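Mods, move this if it's the wrong board.
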Amino acid sequence: MFKVYGSPMCPDCRECKANFDANNVPYEFIDINANLRNLKVFLMMRDIDPVFDHCKEINDIGLPALVREDGTVFLNWEDWMKENGMEVRHYETPDPSHTACSLDRKGC
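Not the wrong board. Structure tokens:
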């Protein structure tokens, strides 16, 4: 089962959750905004795992972050779904003021 680090405020996280739920993908959602411990665990992971290097370079947060049972982290849940024969659906209606988490509104 995956651990999915994210935030209910993040549109990419909501899309990931909706797609996983629709496809019965087992996961544990860890809300990084729920408490400081969750945030700290995510930040420690983000600080040391090279999978986040590009996100940091472009000032993105790196959400949702998915952790496999073996501890490996990946960020592209859409490619994972496609590789596993699942269709990615877009449930959110884009709202220009809430389409992304990054300051430049291009990603999370």
